Amino acid sequence: MAEPWMLDYSDGSSNHTRIWQEGEAVRYEYTPTTPQHSSSGTYSGGRPTRGLVPEAFVVELWGRIQAMATDTSQHTRVRIMGSGAFTIAIDDDAQHFQVRRCASLRDFDAWLRATLNLGRG
Can you give the pTM of this predicted structure? Predict the structure, then answer.
């Protein structure tokens, strides 16, 4: 992807992952929900992390995002508990969508957490 881009993703527990292009590098930052900000008062999304991502990750990321963006049968107009909220910005153009809790969102969450080692610090 040649243009500068950014993905902002909030998972069903409001853990926040931002992935963006910075020059030739692609970086990520994970900001987990803390017990102070969770609805239960006890949930923790783990430790905050940040780093660089490999090119192969970016290719798979865009494939997964594209699949969820185009499957509007799983979209929801309002943010509901367990849903994932996505913002994709390419140059000055931004696209927002929300995906209800479903198999593709669970698969995306599991892949993202495992690939980037999110929350494990």
Answer: 0.89
Spell out, as residue ranges, where the chain has pLDDT lower than 50: none
Output the CA torsion sign for 63, 18, 95, 3: negative
Cα–Cα distance list, 100 to 97, 115, 121 (Å): 10, 22, 28
> Is 15 within 8 Å of 30 (Cβ atoms)?
yes
- Cα distances from 70 to residues 63, 67, 98, 99, in angstroms, run 11, 5, 11, 11
d(CA 24, CA 103): 33
Alpha helices, H only, 1-121: 55-70, 103-116
Query: Which residues, listed in sequence order, are joined to residue 31 by a DSSP beta bridge?
Result: 16
Tokens of 10: 């909030």
